Amino acid sequence: MKMYLIAASAVVGLVLLTVPVQAAPRPNVGDTAPLFSGQDQDGKTVALADLIGKKIVLLYFYPKDFTSGCTKEACGFRDRMGDLSKDNVEVVGVSFDSAKSHQEFIAKYKLNFPLLADPDGKIVDLYGVRMDHLSLAHRVSFLIGLDGKIVHVTDAGNPAVHFEQMEAAIAALEKK
Questions:
Q1: pTM for this predicted structure
Q2: CA distance 68 to 143
């Protein structure tokens, strides 16, 4: 009987481990941005609700700290921060990495914006950007207007194209 219970528990555990995580569908332009809050690299809470109405939010998801494409993207945002700040844009990065990893990434590359640690993928899943069967986010950015609506979505894998598309979307917002 004991062996049967142990075996049954093991089977149930394996089934639970193989059940795919159910992510929300990816929000589209015109949708209200899903509200989230998360801890940044210093343990401070960053909540989208606190930014709506005050800042345009460039919420970007990326796979992993210290990888070549993610480093290029993060440094690109860092280098554009002066222009983004003038345009009232707040950059917030999100990945599965830990706060400690984010602290090291920020220190090494002198990043000047918050990175949210999302080790359980709650924010990633809320925005539907998890890579299938992995604890990694796709490279996707959402530009969220002052009204809390998504005004642009970029999922270009190439950081240079990613920047161009976001810059064009920010410029279009300024003309409105």
A1: 0.86
A2: 23
pLDDT at site 144: 98
In 85-176, the DSSP E strands lie at: 89-95, 115-117, 140-144, 150-154
Neighbours of 46 (CB within 10 A): 19
Alpha helices in 87-147 (DSSP H): 99-109, 122-126
Q: What is the CATH number of the domain that holds 128?
A: 3.40.30.10
- Sequence-separated (6 or more) residues with CB below 8 Å from residue 78: 109, 110, 111, 112, 113
Q: Has residue 3 been placed in a domain?
A: no
Which tokens sit at 87? 């345009």
Does the residue 38 lie in any domain? yes
Count of positions (residues) in the chain: 176
Count of structural domains, the chain: 1
Could you tell me the residue range of the domain that residue 32 belongs to? 24-175
**Half-sphere CA count of 163, side-chain side, radius 13 A:** 16
Within-domain flag for 82? yes
Q: Identify residue 161 by its one-letter amino acid code.
A: V
Mean pLDDT, residues 154-168: 90
Active site annotation includes 75: no
Q: Which of 59, 70, 92, 150 is catalytic?
A: 70
**Given pLDDT bands bounded at 50, 70 and 90, which one contains residue 173?**
confident
